[in-house]
Design brief:
This protein has helices spanning 11-30, 53-74, 82-109, 119-138, 145-170, 178-195, 212-234, 241-268, 276-281, 285-289, 300-328, 337-358, 361-364, 368-371, 382-390, 402-431, and strands at residues 31-33, 110-111, 114-117. It has a 3-stranded mixed beta sheet. It has one domain (11-38, 51-445): Ammonium transporter fold, CATH 1.10.3430.10. The longest helix has 30 residues, at 402-431. By secondary structure, it is mainly α.
Length: 474
């Protein structure tokens, strides 16, 4: 009997088996332990509590909870696509993290032809995974799991190469990943959904709706992301006061965007009622908006202001910009990632540039050259010797001025957006291949297409005439 074009019976097992064989072979050849995990490098003088495990593992677990539980619950807001949102998030995240360990390791952590694996490598891989999951939000419910895996397969190398180029040649400050994570993920996802445009979905879809229970589950995801976001923004900051500031600023930014979300939701909705979509998404905007400046001396008031501005921009984006993008620019952004990650990422990047221009020794003291490592004097500069008397072990930098560093931030912003859009568009053309089992319009946002649904699965709502014709082309 011939399989349905969307059937996973052959395609998914073949992809998983082949990809896992390739990944395990690459791990066997190229991956070994780093110094903190290699038993051969431990001796009588080794102090077990000095192992990086005890500083990195709390961040690792926090980010794991965000990716697998927070993102998973958040994406389960559609009434008849709860399985797809949560389970495909699980599937895609697991594959993307495995793949990113290898790809990022090749670009950043390879020494003598080997990738020396430690917790910090896995944390970096989880950031790459977060990039894929943010992009996933733009095509939620409109793609098969095989398409999502192929998207992860293609997006991770583009992201890793972009990250490597920016960090190696432009050398920017981006503690919370506003440029390299949020903006890249957003515009890559928009590039994909632009190519996968479905005209009939612009007219509405009977299954494109949330329910009481699905909204409650999505709100749980929001709360989990909210609670753990300070770890996401601070994990790559310098230990000590920089990391401390990143936690404080992220909390203040999230607090401000949350209150802004409630105020604007009541003000912009008829009858002054709150909308769960606003609570689920806009409340998180502050975490992104403070990202680029999280470890800088922007003041608590500055962090709060950024959170409020980010919340307002995100809210207005959902209300007015998303419908415009769908109608006029063929960008059907299912989860509004342009509002939560794109607009707020741009605001954060501009705030970071302003903070870099304003940074001075009067505000930071000698630690200016630790927070902004590339502004430290070059090796041999007498000022470097003077600074090392105050900060022993201070590394030589590039001697950049504040203006030069700001210009490199601008260059990184433009480069990242351009590469992500191009990468997303090209990936979208690959995802249009018929063999990847894209769901037809009338079966989008429906778990019944890919899952054995339980007996109490909510019966599909009657379809409007807009999506009753089988049209698998996207």
């Amino acid at each position: 009997m011939k399989e349905h074009p969307t059937s996973l019976r052959v395609k998914l097992p073949v992809f998983v088996v082949v990809s896992q064989l390739v990944i395990v072979a690459l791990f066997a050849v190229f991956v070994t332990y780093d110094d903190q995990a290699d038993a051969r490098l431990q001796g009588n003088g080794t102090v077990a509590m000095d192992n990086a495990l005890y500083t990195d593992y709390p961040f690792f677990t926090d980010i794991q909870v965000m990716i697998f539980v927070g993102f998973g619950c958040l994406l389960a807001f559609l009434r008849q696509y709860g399985f797809g949102g949560m389970v495909f998030n699980f599937l895609t995240a697991t594959f993307a993290t495995q793949w990113a360990i290898l790809v990022q390791g090749y670009f950043q952590f390879s020494h003598d032809g080997q990738i020396h694996l430690g917790l910090i490598n896995v944390i970096n891989a989880e950031f790459a995974c977060a990039v894929v999951l943010i992009s996933f939000g733009a095509v939620l419910g409109k793609t098969s799991p095989l398409q999502l895996l192929v998207m992860a397969l293609l997006e991770v190398p583009v992201f890793a190469a972009t990250e490597w180029a920016v960090l190696t040649y432009l050398k920017i400050n981006d503690a919370g990943g506003s440029i390299l994570i949020h903006l890249f993920a957003c515009y890559f996802g928009l590039g994909v959904t632009f190519v996968l445009y479905r005209p009939r979905l612009n007219e509405g879809h009977a299954k494109e709706a949330s329910g009481y229970r699905s909204d409650m589950l999505s709100a749980v995801g929001t709360l989990i992301l909210w609670v753990f976001w300070p770890s996401f923004n601070s994990v790559l900051s310098l230990r000590g006061d920089d990391q401390h500031r990143a936690v404080l600023h992220t909390f203040l930014g999230l607090s401000a965007s949350t209150l802004t979300a409630f105020a604007l939701s009541a003000a912009l909705n008829k009858g002054g009622k709150l909308t769960m979509a606003d609570v689920q998404n806009v409340t998180l905007a502050g975490g992104v908006t403070v990202g680029a400046t999280a470890d800088m001396m922007i003041s608590p008031a500055g962090a709060y202001a950024l959170g409020a501005v980010g919340g307002a921009a995100c809210m207005l984006g959902y209300r007015y910009l998303s419908p415009f993008l769908a109608r006029r620019l063929r960008i059907q952004d299912q989860c509004g990632i342009h509002n939560l990650h794109g607009l707020t990422g741009l605001i954060s990047s501009v705030a970071g540039i302003c903070a870099i221009l304003a940074a001075s020794e009067e505000v930071y003291g000698p630690s200016l050259y630790e927070t902004f490592a590339h502004r430290a004097p070059v090796e041999g500069d007498p000022k470097l010797l003077e600074l090392r008397q105050q900060i022993p072990g201070l590394r030589a930098g590039l001697g950049r001025t504040a203006r030069e560093q700001a210009l490199y931030q601008v260059a990184a912003l433009v480069f990242t957006v351009v590469v992500s859009v191009i990468g997303g568009v090209l990936t979208g053309f690959v995802l249009k291949l018929p063999c990847l089992g894209s769901p037809p319009d009338e079966l989008c946002f429906d778990d019944d297409l890919f899952f054995d649904v339980p007996h109490d699965y909510e019966a599909p709502s009657p379809l409007s005439n807009k999506c009753t014709t089988d049209d698998s082309s996207v």
